[in-house]
Write a structure and sequence with these properties.
The complex is a heterodimer.
Chain A: H1 14-23, H2 51-55, H3 66-76, H4 85-108, H5 117-124, H6 126-136, H7 150-159, H8 161-168, H9 179-214, H10 217-244, H11 248-259, H12 272-275, H13 304-324, H14 335-370, H15 378-392, H16 397-400, H17 402-424, H18 436-466, H19 510-515, H20 530-552, H21 560-581, H22 594-598, H23 602-611, H24 617-629, H25 635-638, H26 650-670, H27 680-690, H28 694-701, H29 704-721, E1 724-725, E2 731-732, H30 736-753, H31 757-760, H32 762-767, H33 775-801, H34 804-827, H35 832-847, H36 852-858
Antiparallel strand pairs in A: 1-2
Helix pairs in contact in A: 3-4, 4-6, 4-9, 6-11, 7-8, 9-10, 10-13, 13-14, 20-21, 20-23, 23-26, 24-27, 27-29, 27-30, 29-33, 33-35, 34-35
Chain B: H1 10-16, E1 21-26, E2 30-39, E3 45-57, E4 68-80, E5 85-89
The chains are: A mainly alpha, B mainly beta.
Organism (chain B): Serendipita indica (strain DSM 11827) (Root endophyte fungus)
Pfam families (chain B): LSM
Function (chain B): Binds specifically to the 3'-terminal U-tract of U6 snRNA.
């Protein structure tokens, strides 16, 4: 049976073959066989009786006496122990061995970067070779020391021929080596590598010195820093080494003394940048205090501080000399400058350390963030980008993102003005490129633009292909999107476009039209339903937004062609609005007049206020004319009856707001005439128009909004009657004929108003429902005094313009009202309510040159 | 009068009522009447000068005609969460 699919059957003639194998002197194992001899179970497993056989019981060698070896290696140095000649004889030999085995080992190792460099060095430089050996000497595993106990060593040699062969002749590769030897070689090689690195760095540094003399002035600074960094790198290594091995420093110093002689122009090293790139080297925090005490006399590379000093001084000198036109400096270092340079170097080192720390912080941050790298796939990212872009893309960016657009335009203007300032000033050198953040924003914008344009082009290509539906997809489906990618839309939100009216979902309801105020206001039909009115206002608001947008994009004055088209489109829009307001047209065909209907909702009133400056004076006058002519149709006049009540209700509050909006937005803002159009003639004409229909006038004037409008016209007219202040402060008198006309009109208005004064007071109308002089009436009158204020005010203003004869007639007419009010004031306790009553009356009396105090003092108790 | 161009979707009708008084019927036998200032696609709304009318049906024993009370309150400014809105309409014409 073949379990794993290969042949498992034993050959037939296994007995013969076994014998054959036995003859071949090869161990044949037959476990599981019937002839199993159970040798395994005979193994001695428990005791340690036979340890001697396993590990040997003879005299122990000194192969592993590493400390002894170290000592010996140290004592090998001739200057330390010259008294032992045989040791000094032995030492070179072993060194030779180590070096050569190192070479061999290095050649075997393909990963070693120094495998090629090392042998050449050894060959070309015997001094260095020695130094390399000396370097390795103090290391415990560096070499087998035959010197401490040579006799023992030779004993081992006798016992084990392999060990002896190696210790005597390392070149014999065929012989096996001891573990200790191999270990020692490996460690030595490692050291060698490290030393080589150091040496190469040192060489770089020295080569740099030569190179720097040829460099330009600007490069020097850069190089200095590079040098400094290298120094630190070296220093760091040095310190590390020193920490691990206290003797290392001494060795290093010695080695460097030797190594100094190594360098030469024939040095073929990789360039500095490759070796000392700060990113590639593993860096550690450096201590600011110099770790290694260096003897001051040591001018070699060992004294880094001195070297840095030298270097910096050299730079300075070179700079100086170059400025003076001298070719090349020679090396003379004064002690004072050295000290100064030392301080400078220290400062630079600190700076470099700070840079280093910052760099490390940054790397740590990046590393901590890198945890989340590649969590999202590219398709995830694309999906999110799509969602974001879908949010950004809109058919009407202006309306959808009004505030952002306004902000962007303001910002653009500011940037443009700043740029102009910059252009005006000469460009200084210190201008920096765009900030990193701005760069990122720009990149993002470009990215989004690209995506948007791509989407648009795809849409277009789709549309283009759909022009020929017969041929679509005949060559196979080209669209990559499936129905899954584009789920069915739940709500079809069409964008408003003028040509899409054909399929409007909302139908006009003709019934609504006939339902409204048709019945209440005579036979005339309303111009449109309230809904339609609101729609017209919406459209007008859109128009005014377009105008505002157009104003923001006003072309420059020099660009005449664009300016004219711009003006044309602006005029067109203004005309559209004017037409939309429906001021011009038949006055009496609808009830209310279309314009009056449009300003009925709050929005309509506000719209007029917003439009304000865009209407010409002519248009404003026409509009005012319509309002005055059809004043009874105004919502604020029609619904004014709600004010004849002391009860507070939402409807009343709403009406108050509407009345306020009418006066403020429509009359004061929207239809406020420019100074050139504000003439006495104008207002005379308006008031004349107002009193044309007397019955209407008397109905209108007793309402607060009506009286406020009249007061507005009247105040303007009485101001203009006294003339104007010219631009230079001169007095421009009103034309005499206009003044005459105005006086005439005033008399007519006076006559019309005289019988109306009493009823004009809301308190008169309200208090009629209460029994006269009752406590209730007095209490209510406290409330109605507030309503009366505007009448008293108008009365005062009106009386001022009148003659003495007219004054007396006014007093006769209003005597009852004045006395009644004062009587109620007497009934009240001292307080705000009483003060208000008296103040109201005084408004009128003061205009006539009288005062309430005269009456109150004369008659302490006013009779009923 | 061609005004249908402005109305393309149901929300356009609500848009017309901006800064107008509207009647809003809510779940839980509630009604609001107030001036609409803002709305969104969820029918969340900002109303001002609101009168809320709550119909309260008191629990009564079987067979007895249930009594319905109407509670009203005034709110100056109100945010209405859209999930409770049943209908929005212009105020009833008097």
């Amino acid at each position: 049976m073949s379990f794993f699919g290969f042949e498992t059957s034993v050959p037939r003639d296994d007995k013969d073959s076994k014998q054959a194998y036995a003859e071949e002197d090869i161990a044949v194992y037959t476990w599981g066989d019937a002839s199993y001899d159970a040798l395994g179970s005979a193994l001695e497993e428990t005791g340690d009786d036979l340890n001697d056989e396993t590990f040997g019981g003879g005299p122990v060698g000194k192969d592993f006496d590493f400390s002894g070896a170290t000592n010996a290696a140290l004592t090998n140095q001739p200057n330390v122990q010259p008294s032992k000649p045989y040791q000094s004889d032995l030492a070179p030999k072993t060194q030779q061995n180590t070096s050569s085995t190192n070479d061999l080992w290095k050649n075997v190792d393909p990963s070693s970067a120094f495998s090629k460099q090392v042998p050449t060095e050894h060959i070309t430089n015997p001094v260095h070779q020695t130094s390399a050996a000396q370097r390795t000497a103090p290391s415990v595993f560096a070499q087998i020391n035959p010197s401490v106990n040579p006799q023992a060593d030779y004993n081992i040699t006798n016992l084990s021929s392999a060990t002896a062969a190696l210790s005597l002749d390392g070149h014999n590769e065929a012989r096996p080596r001891t573990m200790a030897e191999i270990e020692a070689e490996m460690h030595a090689a490692l050291r060698e590598q490290q030393q080589q690195q150091l040496i190469s760095q040192q060489r770089e540094r020295e080569r740099m010195q030569i190179e720097q003399q040829l460099l330009m002035q600007q490069q020097q600074r850069m190089m200095e820093e590079e040098q400094l960094r290298m120094e630190m790198e070296k220093r760091r290594l040095y310190e590390q080494q020193a920490l691990q091995d206290p003797l290392w420093a001494i060795r290093q110093a010695m080695m460097q003394e030797n190594g100094m002689s190594v360098q030469g122009p024939s040095d073929l090293r990789p360039s500095l940048s490759a070796n000392v790139s700060p990113m590639t080297q593993n860096r550690h925090p450096m201590s600011q205090i110099p770790h290694q005490p260096h003897p001051p006399h040591n001018h070699g590379a060992g004294n880094q501080q001195a070297l840095v000093n030298e270097l910096l001084l050299h730079h300075q000198r070179q700079q100086m000399l170059e400025q003076q036109g001298h070719p090349r400096p020679n090396y003379d270092i004064s002690i004072e400058s050295q000290d100064a340079m030392a301080a400078d170097a220290r400062r630079r080192m600190q700076e470099a350390e700070m840079m280093e720390a910052r760099h490390r912080r940054r790397m740590a941050k990046i590393q901590s963030m890198a945890r989340y790298n590649d969590i999202m796939t590219q398709s995830d990212k694309d999906f999110i980008t799509r969602v974001q872009v879908a949010q950004l893309v809109t058919s009407d960016p202006y309306a959808d993102d009004f505030y952002a657009q306004v902000y962007a335009s303001i910002r653009q203007q500011r940037i443009a003005s700043e740029n102009q300032v910059l252009k005006g000033a000469p460009r200084q050198g210190g201008q920096r490129g765009p900030h990193r953040r701005e760069n990122a924003i720009q990149r993002m914008q470009a990215h989004v633009e690209r995506i948007v344009s791509h989407m648009k082009s795809r849409e277009q290509s789709k549309e283009a292909s759909s022009h020929n539906p017969g041929l679509q997809n005949v060559l196979g489906k080209t669209s990559g999107r499936s129905y899954k990618a584009a789920p069915r839309q739940l709500l079809q939100v069409a964008t408003a476009s003028p040509d899409s009216r054909a399929h409007h979902p909302v139908k006009e309801h003709d019934s609504v039209k006939s339902l409204d105020s048709h019945v209440h206001h005579g036979d005339l039909p309303p111009p449109f339903s309230p809904t339609e009115g609101l729609m017209i206002i919406e459209r007008l608001f859109n128009n005014i937004l377009e105008i505002e947008q157009l104003r923001r994009n006003k072309p420059l004055a020099e660009d005449e062609a664009r300016m004219s088209t711009w003006k044309q489109s602006l005029d067109e829009l203004l005309d559209t609005i004017w037409q939309g307001l429906r001021v011009v047209g038949p006055l009496y065909e609808t009830n209310p007049h279309p314009f009056i209907a449009l300003i009925a909702p709050m929005k309509g009133k506000r719209f007029i206020g917003r439009l304000g400056r865009d209407l010409t004076d002519e248009q404003k006058l026409m509009t005012l004319g319509v309002i005055v002519n059809r004043i009874e149709q105004l919502d604020v006049i029609r619904g004014a009856a709600i004010l004849d009540s002391v009860e507070d209700s939402p409807a009343r509050r709403m009406f108050e707001r509407q009345a306020g909006a009418f006066q403020e937005n429509v009359i004061n803002q929207g239809l406020h005439l420019s100074p050139s159009a504000r003439t006495l003639k104008t207002y005379t004409a308006l008031i004349e128009l107002m009193i044309e229909n007397l019955s209407t006038f008397s109905r209108v004037v007793i309402t607060r909004p009506g009286l406020t409008l009249l007061e507005h016209f009247f105040a303007e007219a009485s101001l203009l009657k006294h003339g104007l202040q010219g631009p230079e402060g001169e007095h421009i008198a009103a034309p005499a004929e206009d003044v005459a006309k105005w006086s005439n009109l005033y008399d007519r208005v006076f006559e019309h108003l005289l019988p109306l004064w009493n009823i004009m007071f809301p308190s008169t109308r309200i208090l009629a429902a209460f029994p006269p002089n009752s406590l209730e009436a007095v209490q209510v009158s406290v409330v109605t005094d507030g309503f009366d204020l505007h009448v008293w005010r108008f009365l005062a203003g009106f009386a001022l313009e009148g003659t003495l004869e007219q004054h007396s007639r006014l007093v006769t007419q209003l005597r009852a009202k004045v006395m009644g009010t004062l009587r109620m004031a007497q009934a009240l306790e001292e307080g705000k309510a009483k003060a208000r009553k008296i103040r109201n009356v005084d408004l009128f009396l003061n205009a006539l040159g009288l005062s309430s105090t005269q009456i109150l003092e004369a008659t302490p108790q006013i009779p009923i | 009068m061609q005004v249908s161009g402005e109305i393309q979707e149901p929300f356009d009708l609500i848009r017309l009522s901006l800064s107008e008084r509207v009647m809003v019927k809510l779940r839980g036998d509630r009604q609001l009447s107030g001036v609409l200032h803002a709305y969104d696609g969820h029918m969340n709304m900002i109303l001002s000068d609101v009168e809320e009318t709550v119909m309260i049906v008191d629990p009564v024993p079987e067979g007895v005609k249930p009594s319905i009370r109407v509670a009203k309150r005034q709110i100056e400014m109100l945010y209405v969460r859209g999930d409770g809105v049943i209908l929005v309409s212009p105020p009833q014409r008097e």
